[in-house]
Amino acid sequence: MNKGRMLLVALIFLIGGFGAESLVGAAAPELQIVREQVGDGKLFLPQLTGLTDLERQATLNATLREAVLAFNNPSPDSTLQGDFTVSFYNGEILGIHFRGNSYTRGTVHPNKIDRGIHLDLTTGQIYDLKNLFLPDTDFTAAIRQQCDRNREAYRLRIAGLWDEWRHEEFVRSWRGADAAFLLSADAMRVYSIPRYATGAISGYWVPYADLREIIDQNGSLWQKLQAQPNRPISVRQ
Q1: pLDDT value for 19
Q2: pLDDT of res. 7
Q3: Do 123 and 138 share a domain, yes or no?
Q4: What angle do CA 47, 202, 64 make, to 5 degrees?
Q5: CB environment 169-202: b (16+ within 10 A), e (fewer)
Q6: pTM of the prediction?
Q7: Which domain, by its residues, includes 60?
Q8: Residue 220 DSSP SS3
Q9: 193 domain-assigned
Q10: How many domains does the chain have?
Q11: What is the model's pLDDT at position 194?
């Protein structure tokens, strides 16, 4: 290969590398805690800072904000309060664990919220659990089956959460909008908060290895979860 062609190949490689880049190898981003008032509730939101692409940073932050505000009850008399922790970060995917409640004036109980948000830092997509699996697979049934087969081995016991729930209660409650999940590099936590129950069902920790046959290994969610190891991200006030 002559020098001119080598230079052309190098330029194509460099230009391609600056397309839809992830945050791997970029200047270390941080999360800033931003306080917002929603009704009478005190809400603490995550906002990315430190990205060189400010337009992209603003778009990602708007997506995060909208995802959290979507947890509020739809009534105009509702308040939303809560805080977050980082459940996963590898430069490709940011996992946010939001916990709080939404209260509508005139109702007896607030709606408890304990949900994960999984944001693609390249595209801005918020992933659903179905994005991890091949199309037209009953992944919820497969997950419940693994939880049933490994009740004791996979059951989570988390300090501060109700520990007296039964497997049958998990099966009844982990469905539809109440099928909460948190993703990591090698496993997922599946859990729920039944309405008016004694407390949250801490759920199970299910390894991806148990579900490998139905995971979409060519899908963007799986590939980005596996692209880089989990690593810390600074969170500041």
Answers
A1: 42
A2: 39
A3: no
A4: 15
A5: ebeebbeeeebbbbbbeebbbbbbbbeeeeebbb
A6: 0.88
A7: 22-127+228-237
A8: helix
A9: yes
A10: 2
A11: 74
